[in-house]
Request: fold
Amino acid sequence: AGLGGASLVEEEWVSCREDDLHSLLVKAWEAKVFPVIQRRFRNDQERKSGLEQIRGALHLGMENIARETVEFLYEENGGAPGDLHFPNMEEIKADLQKFSIGHLQSGSVVVISKELPHGVKTMEKTAGLTGTVVSVDKQNKLVLVDCYLKNEGTQARFWYPVACLERPAPGYGKRSLLHKKVDGDSLLTHRELLSCESSLTKIHCRKALMSLSSSPTEPDSVLKHLQMLSCDCFSEPQVDGSCSTTSPLHASTPSALLHCLQLSPLHLFYRDPGKIEQAIEQAVTSCVDDLKPLTRAMCQCLVEAPEGFHSLELEAEGKEAMDFVCPGAAFTAVCCVDGSSPPQSEVYKHPWAQVFCYRGVEEGNRKLQAVAQFPTEMPQYCGPAYPSLVLPFSSLHVRLNSSSAKPGKKIVVSGLPSAFPLCLAYVHTLSLCVLRPEGPGRAECAKSLAKCVEALICLLSQYDCQCLLKELLFHLMAESLGVLLATPQLQILPTIPSEFVESLKEELAALCQREGVSFTRSSGAAGGSFGNGRGVVHSTYFQSLLELVVQMDRASPVVGQGSDPSSHGEVGTKHRATEHDAPAAQPRRTSSRLGAQRRKEATQQDSRGKWIASLASCVKLMCAVDGKRSMRLRTPSSLPTQTHARLLVVGGIDPSVEAHQARRTVHQTCRMHGCTPRGQVTIFPAGGGSGNGDDNGTGSSCAVLELMSSNKALAVATALSSALKTEGSSIAVSTVRGNLKCEREGQCDVALERYLRERLLKGAELVPLAADALREIFLSSCVGGGEGGSGVKSLKARLNLFVAGVCGAEKAADLLTRKGGVLTLEVFMDWAQEQASANSTAVWRGLLAAGHDFHFDRCGFFASESPSSAFSYQQDLAVVHLVNALCRHWSITSDTLEPCDLVVDEVSLASKELAPLQGISVSDIRLRFTQLKRFGVEVAHILPLIDLRPTHPMALATVLSNVMPLVSYDTKISFVNAVLNASVRRLPAQAPPEIKLDPLSSVSGVPANPVDTYFCKTAQQMLAVPSSKLCVALASGGDPTYGFNVKFTGEEVHGTSGSFRQLMWQIVRELHSAALPLLMSCHSAAVGLNKGMSILVPGPLTYAIEKQLEFFGLVLGVAMRADVPLALDVLPCFWKALRGDPITLQDVQEADCVTYNLTEKMLSFSRGRDMEDWLSDLMHSMADEDKKERQFGACFVYYDLNGREVELSEGGRDRPVSFDRRDEYVSAVRNLRVQELQSPSRFHAIRRGMASVVPAQLLKVLTPADLDLRVNGLPTIDVGYLKENTIYQVGLAETDKHIQFFWEALESLSQDELRKFVKFACNQERIPFGQRGVHTPPFPMKIAPTDSEGPPNNCFIRTETCMFMIKLPQYTSLAVTSEKLRYAIHCREDPLSG
Reply:
């Protein structure tokens, strides 16, 4: 669907300048309609005028108006005759598509069939080649075709039957293999060959010259060598004639999208970026002592602008055709501008502007190829209708037809001199040289980089660039500033005029107003500022400008504030209005309103400055994460705490219920809601007594419990009301207010007061933990003096809050007057003891106000506090892991998680993920959580505003990718979901594609033949489906919309969810089998490590494997949009390689622990004799079948993951491994495994398929663990989560006996059986998890009465998989329910039977 698809119809259209499709339509009317209607006019003048009006309407594409004009002529006769046929555009296109003798003419391109009638032997050599028509014999249906035989260097001409000729495939309609027409005269043929040989000779001579001057030392020779190499490495035209796509919004194919993610001058302008980068590095190294001459020569084209940057503007007025020739230009930039800036969704019926390039020669004239048209007629997913393009040509041909263009439109074509790409590549490479470790010339490179930034500012000030070029320059300048700011020890920054900075800020403010970005944090919620509606996203131009402004704000303390106005103009005033630009500035107010207007502008400027400064501060924090250093974060105030919301008081419990039974019921109810009580449930007997649990409880009336999370309080309270209710009892479950009073007064308040007193006092004394907490409050608030000294103490922060919480703020001053105005620790502790004995609830209010919880741990902090010791990067990761685990367990988001909810026990700290937190107090962990939570909010604010294309180590996209592991999972997923919903491409009126499959083909298991698998059958049917139809919004509702529908032949399935989930489950099952050569079991599974886990099969990339991997990636993308967990059991290295992250030795150990252990053992030896003895023992211990040239360490040969022998170095079979070579051998073995796990070409194919459905930039937002969780979901099934997301049909309730039997039976199942139950109920083994109260399909689960007749115990459990509905009979006992449930999940035959 590219712009340059050179089909035969497009060739006929392009080759005829005058007879386009509309002209052909006019000719058809002149032949079929005009001879009939010309008699309806009264005279020649009316006939001429009327026919001319019809021609004009047809030229403009107004077929309806032309038809109505004709019908008006027959109005007196009741309408046009029935036999009068009106040709339409579809008939014209269909007629052009026909391949017949009538459509062939001299010069047409044809393909000779591979099956030719037996004839001349030379004629058979032309089978399958492309030829040019010389003459046509229509009477005998013969065609004379010229064909060039490349192997023989001769031209053949034969007469062919028209049946032996075929139409060229789209994109391959070339005039000849030499891209030029081959004339019948042999002289012209040899002239063409000589011309090609002459061009080839010039290329070889240029390469020889560059090879001779490959190591220049003089600055002049270095510059000449770089200029020659730059011209030799310029990007070649693509199939459609373009250079490359520079924006994800404009990419037409997945391959182009992945290419545009490498946004740098090297990838845009050069076909071999590594080669030109290496040459520039060598040049910088050779001139490192004095880079000024080389830098001055490189930046000369920037300083002298606009000389060399030729431009052409064409207004959309009338019909016009014009050539644009720019001598010396290497590239041309083309864009469409309009001062009114119409919305991007504005699409006109026909293109009004076409851009052609000259490629080849046809009959002595240069041949045209269409490379762009405005507006585009590409599919919806290709982006805006008026994209900006960079074309690798110095001359273009532009055609305008303003009949369908909006007034004010114009085409702007700009030529880029050959020195311009080299200069940008020099700046890019210079920034990379500055980032290298300390070495000679680093300071000189930094100075040259600063001069280059100043030259770029000069270019932007003096030359009115197109938005596409400005976007590239903004990124380059921002990255260069980021490099200089990352090396503060050099203290080198460019001089930036303040006028230039202010002009950029004004332009940014205008763009913010246009794109709906507020200068407040309210719009910065995760995903909130990504789009203001469906399909509306921030432009990449806005993101690049914002990145530059933020980096300039970071450098503002040392940026130059003055400059010559003549040398640096205001870039914002010269900026053309394009699809990325802001509206024009409003005129000034009248003099009466000037004061108010100035005040308003000052307020807006102040808000804008604070907003930019906050973004710069966030970027500075993110840059501190790079390098895995300790990050100093700001602490937000978390006072007052919400600890009281975790308490529940239960009153009215039947006295006949024993205490241990009540506790068991409370624990069971809390566990079903995913939130167990913290500590022991306190039971207070009705007749009084202690509630510590020592009493056996002859009767009880009240219970007090503290939940692990306050988010579950309401749900647990409702459940306890039903669970503890007995006949004749009235259960009252109350939450606790901030003043430590129950919502329900009476018996609950008494129980709460007793509970608080027992927690605070033991007898008449404070419990040790309470005394320690009070002592810590006092000491942390003292200024000067020792612990019990007589120095004057001042009440600060926490102490003030504590005293105010106990006795009120007005009585807090009484403490200072005791004992002569001196407040010591002893006085304070005595006072606290008195208050606790008199009113323990008041002391608890003070403790909570000072930031403590009911276990005397800190959970509330002031903004100025910091942890007692600095947290490392690994410890921060452990805190984030703990937060994510708690949020998943309680089905909440991190913004609702309170510091008091973080509780870490010794069992949790023993895990690998939380081990870095060992030895750190709970208070410090909670304090660090508040800091990371605040940091996550700041990242969520800036995340939608950053261009996520990774271009440079110091680009904000790269910096952001480094800090994403420190952001909570739900924050990232909120942004990802917003992006997916904003990138919907399927129109509401478009029907979803349908995949038809035979369900009987998978009954017996996975087919042995790959062609018979669901994977290949679905891939085959998806070939004809454009990816735009697969890009739908996230699944929601009872019967959600997926990327495609699945139809199983012979099955009557209601809805689409069940069949879709069945197909995805079967595809994953086939991927893990031996039927498809894509995944393989990891080698560590053979020794019991990572059993059941898979990795990608390494190896060369064939065409068939490439297409299968692309479809594999498409399945991953469809699953992300559908939110259907795939249960794809792959190692973390799979997701790391998919993101493009480096593979580490830990990944090698997980995938092949045998190889890793062998290499570690070899490196552990200190003597060669010991290593030889070990290798000898290892060889003898192997089985006979393993000995076949596989002895580890024998020679430089090892086996890859597929079992094939690989030489680790040249002549490896003849190189024995000695003790001195062991490091080289181990490194080679490990590098082999790393390369196999990376498999760049194979993962690139997966990314291409995934990018066709999901924006590829999202891979950098999610970590490998996040990707695994987003695609596969949780491997465990939480029965409490199921119960919390279940609704009951009419007539059923959670308190029904058979419903309780059902949940108890589910709790008794193992995890494997629970996965089978979920598969039985909704056709997927795993369930997605989400926020509490937000139902993600297939949720909510529904329980309905059975529709079977007969005794309940004889009925079976049935399900409707599309609706996740379980039809449950009223079983009479738990045993029967468990039996029927296990029978259903183990003995099901047809998952779609309902």
